[in-house]
Amino acid sequence: MTRAHVLVCRGPDCISRGAQDVYAEVASQVFAQGLSHDVVQTQCGCVAPLCGHGPVICSYPSGVWYAGVTPADVAGIVSDDLGRGEAVEHLVAARLEGGA
Asked: What sign has the CA pseudo-torsion 61, 96, 67, 93?
């Protein structure tokens, strides 16, 4: 059963800042941390409110949006947010109402 969804922005700005490498690391970490059956990962278009601050990752159900994410940040996001539901505070750019 899916319990979390992570979206990685692939808008032009995020791509120019390394979003493709971030997405590859998300896929790698989700698998490595044994969350393949629990987490859906998606590449999405521009996340306009945070354009210019990428790469951006949106995590649900927490409703947390992370900005300026590097591949080195991904393991913590996957284990803390997607695995345990705890935000990685130093990367949080926004929280959407209704998130956990």
From this structure: negative
